[in-house]
Amino acid sequence: MNQDPLISEDYFTRVYEVVALIPYGKVTSYGAIARYLGTASAARMVGWAMNHAHVNQPQLPAHRVVNRNGLLTGKAHFFPVSMQERLEAEGIQVKEDEIVDFTQHFWDPVVELQFS
DNA sequence: GTGGTGACGACAC
DNA sequence: GGTGTCGCCACCA
């Protein structure tokens, strides 16, 4: 019934699709994903999807998704591997549970994917 | 069907 | 400039 493949799945799946598209060594924010999905104000919904991400998509690179401040808010949910450890493994520096040069590593799906 | 929740974001003070 | 509060939408009990 839906027109676009990105919205043909559940909202959760849409989030997973975008997160899965995050390139190596890049990070994005919940709000950026929410805006790409058309629900900019529902950034919390993205976080919720991530809450079950480890159940539906355990392979999902959720460690590349942080809040608008570049803070590793969801690191507490990461197990057994620390979120910071994974980011550093990709060349992203993390200081005080916060990504260094967050804007530099920021990857905006709206800009990068730009609905092309 | 209603209420509450949530890995957030923006605005107000 | 930092802290606090509200809003927001979709899912779960």
In terms of quaternary structure, what is this? single chain
What is the level 1 CATH name?
Mainly Alpha
Classify the secondary structure makeup into a structural class: mainly alpha
Order of helices and strands: HEHHEHEEHH
Strand elements, count: 4
* Strand order in the sheet with the most strands: 1-2
Shape, principal axes of CA atoms? globular
Provide structural commentary.
With 116 residues, the chain is mainly alpha-helical. 41% of the residues lie in helices and 7% in strands. It contains six helices and four strands, in the order H-E-H-H-E-H-E-E-H-H. It has a two-stranded parallel sheet. A two-stranded antiparallel ribbon has the order 3-4. Helix 1 packs across helix 2 and helix 1 packs across helix 3. The protein is globular. The relative contact order is 0.18. The chain binds a DNA duplex (13 and 13 nucleotides) through helix 2, helix 3 and strand 2.
Topology overview:
Elements: H1 11-20, E1 28-29, H2 30-37, H3 43-56, E2 65-66, H4 83-89, E3 94-95, E4 98-99, H5 102-105, H6 109-112
Parallel strand pairs: 1-2
Antiparallel strand pairs: 3-4
The structure holds a DNA duplex (13 and 13 nucleotides).
Brief summary:
This protein is mainly α. The protein has helices spanning 11-20, 30-37, 43-56, 83-89, 102-105, 109-112; strands at residues 28-29, 65-66, 94-95, 98-99. The strands form two sheets. A two-stranded parallel sheet has the order 1-2. Strands 3-4 form a two-stranded antiparallel sheet.
